Automatic annotation (TrEMBL):
Name of the protein in its database record: Legume lectin domain-containing protein
Transmembrane segments: 253-275
Biased composition (Polar residues): 386-395
Organism of this sequence: Corchorus olitorius
Domain (Legume lectin) ranges: 4-231
Keyword terms of this UniProt record: Lectin, Membrane, Transmembrane, Transmembrane helix
Amino acid sequence: MADFSGEPNLNRSGDAVFSDNKLSLTKNTIGADGVGLNNSIGRAIYPEKFHLWDSLTNTAADFETNFTFTISMLNPPDGADGMAFFIAANNSEPLHPRTLGGCLGLIVNCSDHNVAGLVFVEFDTFSNSRLNDPSENHIGININSGKSVATQTWDERMKNGSEGHARVRYDSKTANLIVFLTYPSLDGSRSLSYPVNLSEVLPEWVVVGFSAATGTLIETHYVLSWGFISSISTELPIPEAESDHGGRGGQNIGAVIGGAVGGSVVLLGSVLIYLRRKREVREAEKNDCDDSIDHEFEHESGPRRLLDVADNKLCMEFDVKQMECLLIVGLWCAYPDYTFRPSIRQALQVLNFEAPLPNLPKKMPIPKYDAPSSSSNSSTGPFLLSDNSLATTGR
């Protein structure tokens, strides 16, 4: 996971600021004008959109986010109201003053149980009777509403400054959203889940981030580190031949990049290629093209090129430069020696033709693996990754 040293690129609004290598979501000091910490709201959003599901392939992303945080009462035993990790429509309303208190900086009217395009996991530190909160301190899953569809109680230690470790995971195959919460310095853990098809409640492209709020009672809300990783199916159907009135269009190629191993960001070989094109060829002509390429490949009579691995159903109807770049970067990311693999920034620069292609060896090197030491401790490196190229931030 990444900490917030260096003030990474997050879109902050309200009272959210970076403070001592942490993301402070609400006010943490009394201002020079004497204004206190009550009635504070803050939000931080990752600037790039997240591709949650794909209308072309009818597939959805699996994702997992991990973050550490603290909530601290300043006037024990009273404190409120909590914080949330959220996924929302890209055109979500900006931060509104009426989202104070139990609305957690997300919903203008907390009693509105029909808010479009909003899913969040709340770490709530105040019991709101109008929201049917189970206890003063609890975690909850919220679907388009300020009222939780699933909850799990905790105790006042949730807001005594202890460091909480949260993991939110979504499995698109089982359509299940799962939340885990542990406090390493305390005994016990909590988890809850809720069956939901996010493709039915959220748009195709969304944003992810954090929000928090206080009302009359006060507390501080810090996010200490954050990691996000996702993957989406790469199975794409070949578009059917369209009307003769259509011309040949261009192609959009995107990359799915993700993974983190032992403190180093490693790009896994998951590549999502979007090939949206219009073809005038008839089905018989397409089959002839397929047979010709297959015959050359099987009898080794055709050219042995990198592009031979491209889908022969495309009949070589793609941007050659883009395809070569994509394949070479894929091989680079899968290099056996991880020290020679590119960083996320390097891979994206090459994919965007902002940097030259790497000079890879003609033959695949023999991988070497060292047996792990039983006494060694692996470290967790910073990552903030997904299929829409969420960039690395942190140490």
